């Protein structure tokens, strides 16, 4: 599932391409919305909230989309060939200069803009909220503290606590904290620091398609432990271990260094080095990428 910075970047690109422009074509190919035609409406803005996107129109409605595992928005010039097959398109928003195509958007809803809160009101503070302030910090801390007995790695993924983190960031955040993802929240010594680190990592990547937690964008150097099973830790050289964390469909592949990270951990399991469930959500070939 995409990280929050992926969704933010998609919204930023859609905002630049569509906001203030009238739709010459506004097709919704989702079974529940196929009867709606948005042509003639003007896009008034595109905003992201955590991992949710809202495209707003001048008739007082918003189109809500969520990428889930394989969804994405692409941007094209009129007449250009799409980079995904047409039958995966769930929304086509075309202006005189741009065509925005939403592919594999399983969650797509049209609702009054004033009702957007019904879909995102349950979320914790959006880590990429441009208006983030002390109140957001306090609310995120309150929600984390309320989950004192829960493992840190799962709480970081819980959008009801803080909106925006995915599997990539939660693994590397735990590494940077020096704690295994199985450490209970009550045993984390600096929860405000966890919130601040989460915001800083997301913010540092929000304006580009590449994601790094190490500060390097070189191939193979972008992450501390994420998707590096069996490889040497960048700090101490110990082999990175991996196991699932969470139950059933919510389980995520988890990576940690048994030397650099203290706390409880399960017995390691052997895995291949290829991408697995819970890989970062930069949907190929890129969310809302302009060609």
Please tally the helical runs, counting DSSP H or I stretches of 4 or more residues: 6
Alpha carbon gap, first and last residue: 24 Å
The helix fraction, in percent, is: 10-25%
User: Main β-sheet, in a few words?
Assistant: 4 strands, antiparallel
Write down the Rg: 20 Å
Beta fraction:
15-25%
Spans where pLDDT lies below 50 across 5 or more residues: 276-287
N to C succession of SSEs: HEEEEEEEEHHHHHEE
Task: List how many beta strands DSSP finds.
Answer: 10
What is the structural class? alpha+beta
Strand order of the largest sheet: 1-6-7-5
Global geometry? globular
* Overall average pLDDT: 92
Region (Disordered): 258-291
Protein name: DNA-(apurinic or apyrimidinic site) lyase
Family: Belongs to the FPG family.
Catalytic activity: 2'-deoxyribonucleotide-(2'-deoxyribose 5'-phosphate)-2'-deoxyribonucleotide-DNA = a 3'-end 2'-deoxyribonucleotide-(2,3-dehydro-2,3-deoxyribose 5'-phosphate)-DNA + a 5'-end 5'-phospho-2'-deoxyribonucleoside-DNA + H(+)
Short description:
Pfam families: Fapy_DNA_glyco, zf-FPG_IleRS. The chain contains six helices and ten strands; from the N terminus they run αββββββββαααααββ.
Please tag this protein with its features.
291 residues, alpha+beta, 4-stranded antiparallel sheet, 6 helices, 22% helix, 19% strand, globular
């Amino acid at each position: 599932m995409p990280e929050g910075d992926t969704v933010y970047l998609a919204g930023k690109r859609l905002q630049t391409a569509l906001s203030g422009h009238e739709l010459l074509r506004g097709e919704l190919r989702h079974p529940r919305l196929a009867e709606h035609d948005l042509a003639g409406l003007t896009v008034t803005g595109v905003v992201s909230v955590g991992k949710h996107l809202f495209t707003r129109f001048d008739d007082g409605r918003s189109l809500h989309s969520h990428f889930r595992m394989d969804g994405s928005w692409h941007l094209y010039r009129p007449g250009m060939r799409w980079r995904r097959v047409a039958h995966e398109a769930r929304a086509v928003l075309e202006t005189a200069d741009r065509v925005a195509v939403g592919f594999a958007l399983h969650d797509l809803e049209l609702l009054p803009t004033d009702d957007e809160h019904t879909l995102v009101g349950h979320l914790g503070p959006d880590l990429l909220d441009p208006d983030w302030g002390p109140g957001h910090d306090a609310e995120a801390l309150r929600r984390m503290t309320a989950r004192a007995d829960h493992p840190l790695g799962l709480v970081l993924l819980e959008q009801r606590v803080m909106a925006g983190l995915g599997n990539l960031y939660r693994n590397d955040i735990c590494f940077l904290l020096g704690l295994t993802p199985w450490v209970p929240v009550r045993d984390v010594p600096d929860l405000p620091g966890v919130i601040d680190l989460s915001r800083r990592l997301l913010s540092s990547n929000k304006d580009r398609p590449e994601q790094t937690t190490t500060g390097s964008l070189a191939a193979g150097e972008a992450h501390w432990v994420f998707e590096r099973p069996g490889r040497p830790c960048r700090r101490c050289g110990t082999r990175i271990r991996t196991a699932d964390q969470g139950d059933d469909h919510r389980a995520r592949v988890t990576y940690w260094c048994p030397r650099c990270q203290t706390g409880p951990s399960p017995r390691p399991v052997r895995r291949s080095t290829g991408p697995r469930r819970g890989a970062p959500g930069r949907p190929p070939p890129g969310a809302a990428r302009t060609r």
